[in-house]
C-alpha cells in the first residue's frame, strides 16, 4: 500500500516539476508545501485550458467560419464574452482547489484509485471507466437539476450562470462562468466516485480538465447532431427554458427522467 501511495506522490511531483519547473526558478516553488504546488500547477493548467480552448473555439466559429455555424446576429458581443471571462477568472482559483483536494485524498490512500493500468488490466480498466462515467453523468445531472429546483441554490449560485440565456450572449467562455461554489458542486461527482469506483489516477485528472473543454463546447450554440451526445443544441434549450436538458455528456439521464427536449423536434417557441 505504501508503495502505491508513493507512486501517486511521485506522479504529482513529476507533473508539478514539469509545469512549475518550466515557469519558475526552483528556489521559488520547491520550498512550497506539496499541496500548494499542486494547486498552483492546476491553476496554471486550468487557466491555460480555458483561454486556449475558448479563444481557438471563438476564432474558428465567429471569424474563420463566420456565418457558417452561427448567424451574424447570434454572435455574442465582445462585452458579453469579457464579462464571462471575468466571472470565470474570479472562480478559477476555487475550481482548481478541487483537483488539488482530490489528489491529496488519493495520495493519502483514502480512495480506490490505482496508479498503473497494469495493476488491474485493460479489460477491468475499461469497465471501471464506463462505471465511473455513468456515475459522474448521473451525479452531475441531479446536482444540476437541484441547482434549479432548490430556489435558494438557484438564486444565490446558479443564477450567475443563467445571465447568459440567449444565442447572442452564449459563447464558449460562458462554459466556466459560474459562481465558484456552483462550479465545484457540479464537478464534485468526479471526486465522490473515487471512494466507490476503482479509478485510474491519471484518467481522473485528465477527465477533470476535459470538463473545461466540454463546457466550452456545449455553450457554442452549434447543434452537433451526434446522438447520444448532449451537444450545444440541447444545452442552448436548457438556457432558454431552464427546465430541460440538465445532462452533461449525454442525453440519457434527461431521457430517463423525463426532462429531454430535442433541438430539432422542439423549437424554442414550443418548449418555453
Strand and helix map with partners:
Layout: H1 2-23, H2 26-29, H3 34-64, H4 78-95, H5 97-107, E1 113-114, H6 122-149, H7 151-156, H8 180-192, E2 199-200, H9 201-217, H10 232-241, H11 252-257, H12 268-271
Tell me what the structure shows:
With 272 residues, the chain is an all-alpha fold. The protein has one domain (2-216). It has twelve helices and two strands; from the N terminus they run H-H-H-H-H-E-H-H-H-E-H-H-H-H. It has a two-stranded parallel sheet with strand order 1-2. The longest helix has 31 residues, at 34-64. It is globular and about 55 Å long.
How would you summarize what this structure contains?
This protein has one domain (2-216).
In whole angstroms, how far apart are the ends? 55 Å
How would you write the strand order of the largest sheet? Answer: 1-2
Structural class: mainly alpha
What is the rounded Rg?
19 Å
Count of helical regions: 12
SSE order, as H and E?
HHHHHEHHHEHHHH
- Please, what is the average pLDDT? 90
The amount of beta strand, in percent, is: under 5%
Q: Tell me, what's the shape?
A: globular
Ranges where pLDDT stays below 50 over 5 or more residues in a row are: 268-272
> How many domain regions?
1
In which range does the helix fraction lie?
A: 55-70%
Number of strands: 2
Give a short account of the largest sheet.
Answer: 2 strands, parallel
Amino acid at each position: 500500500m505504501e508503495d502505491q501511495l508513493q507512486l501517486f506522490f511521485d506522479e504529482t511531483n513529476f507533473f508539478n516539476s514539469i509545469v512549475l519547473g518550466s515557469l519558475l526558478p526552483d528556489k521559488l516553488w520547491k520550498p512550497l508545501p506539496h499541496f500548494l504546488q499542486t494547486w498552483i500547477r492546476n491553476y496554471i493548467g486550468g487557466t491555460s485550458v480555458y483561454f486556449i480552448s475558448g479563444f481557438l473555439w471563438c476564432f474558428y466559429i465567429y471569424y474563420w467560419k463566420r456565418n457558417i455555424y452561427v448567424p451574424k446576429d447570434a454572435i455574442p458581443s465582445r462585452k458579453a464574452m469579457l464579462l464571462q471571462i471575468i466571472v470565470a477568472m474570479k472562480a478559477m482559483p476555487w475550481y482548481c482547489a478541487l483537483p488539488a483536494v482530490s489528489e491529496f485524498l488519493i495520495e493519502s490512500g483514502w480512495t480506490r484509485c490505482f496508479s498503473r493500468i497494469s495493476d488491474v488490466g485493460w479489460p477491468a480498466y475499461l469497465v471501471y471507466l464506463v462505471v465511473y462515467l455513468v456515475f459522474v453523468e448521473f451525479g452531475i445531472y441531479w446536482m444540476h437539476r437541484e441547482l434549479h429546483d432548490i430556489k435558494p441554490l438557484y438564486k444565490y449560485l446558479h443564477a450567475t450562470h443563467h445571465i447568459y440565456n440567449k444565442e447572442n450572449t452564449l459563447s464558449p467562455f460562458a462554459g466556466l462562468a459560474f459562481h465558484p461554489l456552483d462550479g465545484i458542486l457540479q464537478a464534485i461527482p468526479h471526486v465522490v466516485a473515487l471512494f466507490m469506483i476503482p479509478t485510474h489516477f491519471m484518467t481522473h485528472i485528465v477527465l477533470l480538465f476535459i470538463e473545461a473543454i466540454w463546457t466550452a463546447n456545449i455553450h457554442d450554440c452549434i447543434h452537433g447532431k451526434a446522438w447520444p451526445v448532449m451537444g450545444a443544441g440541447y444545452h442552448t434549450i436548457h438556457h432558454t427554458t431552464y427546465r430541460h436538458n440538465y445532462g452533461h455528456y449525454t442525453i440519457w439521464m434527461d431521457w430517463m427522467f423525463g426532462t429531454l427536449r430535442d433541438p430539432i423536434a422542439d423549437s424554442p417557441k414550443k418548449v418555453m
